[in-house]
Amino acid sequence: MPPPIQRNSLCYLYHYQFVRSKIKSPIEELIMNLMSTAVLDDFANLSPLLRIDLHSHTTCSDGGLSPEELIDRASNFQIDILAITDHDTVAGLDVAANYILEKNIPIKLIKGIEISTAWQGFEIHIVGLNIDIKNTQLLQLIDQQQEARESRAIAIGEKLERCGFPDVYHKAKERAGAGTITRAHFAKILYQQGDVPSLQKAFDKYIGKGQRAYVKPNWCSIKQAVEVIHAAGGSAVMAHPIRYDLSSKWLRRLIVQFKEDCGDALEVVLPQMAPQQRDLMLNYCLEYGLHASMGSDFHYPSKWSDLGRNLKMPERASPVWHLWAEPIEPIKLC
Ligand SMILES: [Zn+2]
Ligand SMILES: [Zn+2]
Fold first, then answer.
1. Ligand closest in space to the Cα of 296
2. Which end of the chain, C or N, has fewer beta carbons within 10 A?
3. CB-CB contact of 125 with 154 (8 Å)
């Protein structure tokens, strides 16, 4: 007698085929019929076969690809679920969603944002996932953050002017186009002009914390970001906790604060990360009852990281998507 067919196995196969080819062989038709009667609690059990990337950027902030180009790249990389999380803006999300619809691309778009916050003199990024981008509180916070960005950019431009780089603000603004202006735009201008040998050097020498053209940002608090993300129906994720250059004592303080402020998840998996760092983040999640997220923080194609690359949710983690009531679209057919 053949072994019984596992419902989840059918789901895996069904979803795999749906996303990858949409070609229905007789066996797939059979699976579809079986699946139509199956009920799933959530899509967590399907995640091993899904390619999920919950952190990426477009030209609407400091990314190198337009929303459409990003979706095309995600499609080429066979990403199943992609969150676009531009800095303090949701401008790319409708464009991306319409493009997916128009081209019938089998990608589930998670609407997101990455909010800059200030904590103890550090800039901490809080990603909001699965948000309602029309929420009034969210739109108000975006306006407030954009104003803070604009006045900071003007002040950075003035300081750079005093360092001997005229008109950098306008050049950076032009470079940002309709998108959100960030320090990365200033770095790109200095690099292009040959004033610094690399983008990182622009930060190390001029616009990074404590340097000659550094301007303290006037961001919202972590609490405010988390509250607004929740008001917009989303999950609040602390982005790249390992990249804040904090000692372990300060990192723990930050995570305790985030938890106190009702944050939901830590970004536990990033593309370039030592296994010990990932384990440390996972242990923080388990210790403080936080969920786990994963994302490439993709900005532009590079040889070091790309959409969905090296992202695998650890088995012991409770993925952030457990918090979402809505399963991904293809599985709605189950
Ligand atoms: Zn970030
Ligand atoms: Zn980011």
1. 2
2. N
3. no
- Provide the terminal-to-terminal Cα distance of the chain, rounded to the nearest Å: 27
The domain defined by 146-207 folds into DNA polymerase; domain 1 (1.10.150)
Q: Check residue 117 and give its pLDDT.
A: 97
Q: Measured in angstroms, how far is the CA atom of residue 90 from the centroid of ligand 2? A: 13
- 114 CA to centre of ligand 2 in angstroms: 6
CA distance 173 to 161: 15
CATH architecture of 44-145+218-332: Alpha-Beta Barrel (3.20)
What pLDDT, in 10s, does the model give residues 11-48? Answer: 343 344 344 343 344 434 444 444 333 323 344 445 55
Cα angle at 201 between 221 and 191, to 5 degrees? 105
Beta strands in the chain (DSSP E): 52-53, 81-84, 108-119, 122-129, 235-238, 265-269, 291-294
Distance 128 CA to ligand 2 centre (A): 11
What are the extents of the domains in the chain? 7-36, 44-145+218-332, 146-207
